[in-house]
Amino acid sequence: MLKKHRAIQFPADVRPSIEKVVATLRNAGHECYLIGGSVRDLLLGREVRDYDFATDALPKEVMKLFRRALPTGIKHGTVSVLVNGISFEITTYRSDGTYIDGRHPDTVTFSKELRIDVERRDFTINGLAYDTMTQTLIDYVNGLHDIRSRVIRTIGDPVSRFREDGLRSIRACRFAACLNFTIDERTFAAIPETLDVASKVSPERIRDELLKILESDKPSIGFEYLRRSGLLALIIPELDQCYGVEQNRYHMYDIYTHSIYSCDAAPAHQPMIRLAALLHDIGKLPTKQPGADGDATFYNHEVIGAKMARRIMKRLRFSNEQIETVTNLVVNHMFHYTDEWTDGAVRRFMRKVGLENIDNLFTLRVADRKGNGARRGLPAPIERLKKRIERIIEEENAFSLKDLAINGTILMEELGLEEGPIIGKILNDLLEAVMDRPELNDRNQLVEKAREFLAARKGGEDTAH
Q1: What are phi and psi of 3, to 5 degrees?
Q2: Which residues make beta-bridge pairs with 81?
Q3: pTM, rounded to two decimals
Q4: Distance CA 428, CA 354 (A)
Q5: How many domains in the chain?
Q6: pLDDT tens digit string along 426-465?
Q7: Looking at residue 88, which CATH number applies to its domain?
């Protein structure tokens, strides 16, 4: 065991609460240490999201000591307490029994020794404890050495650790991406041996790990570890199958490599754009065909890709809103703008993509070009399209039915119509007209146009009969 004096500065807004948690347990005769990821991140100078504590106090004793306490994981010894409006998890020292379901121990045994609790944890970098009162770092597993070496290593035998909990192998890849660490060779070699356990992890937990990878500085690090270990074939086989599939003379990389580099190039604070970048060419594999010149073509890959992205995201339990955001970007990423587009064509493009998605689509195009390896920024024609869109938005022209100066109720009153499909058809005809001639977006003019459309439709029906 290594004990080392280490002064750690806590953020001013949480320090009083941390001190109160420790003091409450210590004053009652118990041990209490900050433990796990919070210690790791403090040593690395990273932002800490959650502060967790370990103690020799039993859960029922913790519950008595804190006025606001909830038994959030009481079976496994975890109590959540609220101190000064901040939530902390306090877990009793324990050793774990067998992991029957590949995720959770069937039984736990509470302990009075910190060492026992540390040795049941996943990685050495998460096995450090910190005594906030004496400013002492306690290291039973060489975690400090691995933090300095930037290495992810399991505590104990890696096969055993990964067989206990299938999520741990995925977390190893996530930590590699988020911390820019390498995975220890013996630890990495154990992942392919335990894929059967990883396959038991719930889609929701996998999704959460993927989101954390997408928020890292370089998601490609995590996805490469996932691919090389065999985990990607379990999680997103559609992407895994793109590895080594060459594209054409316009691309430096195969489909998979281009996809992960495009993902890197998208903004880290916009995970859905990053996910769209990762999946934007997923439809190229099923649509790949030899062209007339012998070079590969991928016609309609954006349409097929959007359908595949939808299936992938549904499988991983993403929300409907997230699915719509990503599939919209995937299906629209292949637009080809020329200066011959009329203003009406620009408005139709805006309507198709959705005004709220335009900026995201341009961001995806920039990432797509960077992921190519030889291009940067937006091409000049698309920069001109961007400026045209900005001008049209400033002019406040109609882009959707709700922007029309008329609605279904007015149409029924003015034209003596009853509610039905004809109302929607006329409104869409009016919107098409306004796309080309914005000055028509006036109630009186639209009513007259509606009469013309209705007469034309009736005339067409009479001719058909």
Answers
A1: -120, 130
A2: 69, 88
A3: 0.85
A4: 16
A5: 4
A6: 888 898 888 888 888 889 999 998 898 888 877 655 555 4
A7: 3.30.460.10
